[in-house]
Predict the structure.
Amino acid sequence: MTIELNELTKSFGGRLVVDHLSLKIEKGEFFALLGSNGAGKTTTIKMMSGLQTPTSGDIKIDGQSILSNLQVAKQMMNISPQETAITPNLTVMENLEFTAKIYGCNTKEAVSRAHDMMAKFRLTDRAKAKAKTLSGGLQRRLSIAMAMITNPQIVFLDEPTLGLDVRTRRDLWNILLELKGQITMILTTHYLDEVEALADRVGIMHQGKLCALGTVLELKENFNKNSLEDVFIYVTEETEVLV
Amino acid sequence: MSSLHFASRNQKEIIRDPLSLVFGFGFPIVLLFLFSIMQQNMPYDLFQINKLTPGIIIFSFSFLTLFSGMLLGKDRGSSFLMRLFASPLSARDYIVGYFLPMIPIALLQIVICIIAASFFGFSIDINSLLAIIVLLIISFLFISFGLLFGTLFTDKQVGGIFALFVNLTAFLSGIWFSLDLVGGTFKTICYLLPFAHAVDATKAAFSGNVSGLWGSLSVVVGYTVIIMRIAIVIFRRRMQS
């Protein structure tokens, strides 16, 4: 599904957090949204996933505004929040089943999807373990599996590998790469190597504005830099909107 | 249907926490036991079992406030509620989902307390059925308080507020002593709040005094509606922000 932001703006009190953001993300695209802390990434994700109402502007999915029919849009989307979002006293299987059911699956379908997700996210051997007993890496995998079990057409991954060790991060990358192309994925992260490994296109936000947009290669060429990190440092030092 | 799935999750979260079970079900029985022993050595009927049991059950309901408040506060404090807010669940689903699992817990508390009290001489008769229904209605008040606290505060803050709440429930309700013993302004304040009315309604129900329970019960129901309404309004506002 194509997701389109038109002049999306969010202010809290007098403070402008997202400033007239316009952007189009294509169906099946893996899009990475970068920016320093406080750049407006998470607020943008929250507005796109229906968690916050924009001050002005619009968000369209396949040409239809989500603001006028949020409940329908929510059925098509899911989110993996920045912190692990699981229910601790339920087992891995129960967490997955529960998520599928609140999106309308019957028990048989929820069980079937839960088994699929456990296989895909390599959680099958911990199916009966309470979520609170899992390691941080496994909890994060479960949290992302809970976002995927509803077969979303758009999924928001807000810093999915934050705080994970190198091995666990790589495992998660491989899982996300397997899903690439099937779902429109919007990722926010501070790990630039993650962006290079996963993303089709990158947007860099600074002070609420989209300051750079393109593939990693295009950004390096456009800004005449050797690495994405150099581009990021350069762009986030400038306040002028470049796109 | 989604609200029932959510309610099921909430019930599992509560009953799988062993401390909840110990405090919610065990503590009132311990109190029944201790006060019954104290009564045996007293020259007057301060903790007579038929007067004590309704109060102890009302006291045990304050743990419903703790359970519902802690659960909602914990969900709000974690990203889990963000996940839920991004789902198609409606505001109604949340309220039903947090409220519904408390009812069987309340019913269990009532039945366990009555059975435990019967071992200390509490008489179970047909009026006990009426009392169970009245107590279930009263339990809604305590669940509503929990939802209000959970909507306003974090789980850690709810723990602190519970300490204050449980003492208010105990001392302003006439659970441990007759309010007539103190009288005056204290008694007036107690009857401005719903807790003393809850105890009076329960005592009336256990004694089969149907005509005497409506006045007290209507005060409790009135408070329940107001507290629940405030909790829903604040929760909806938090959802939208």
In short: Chain B has one domain: 2-240.
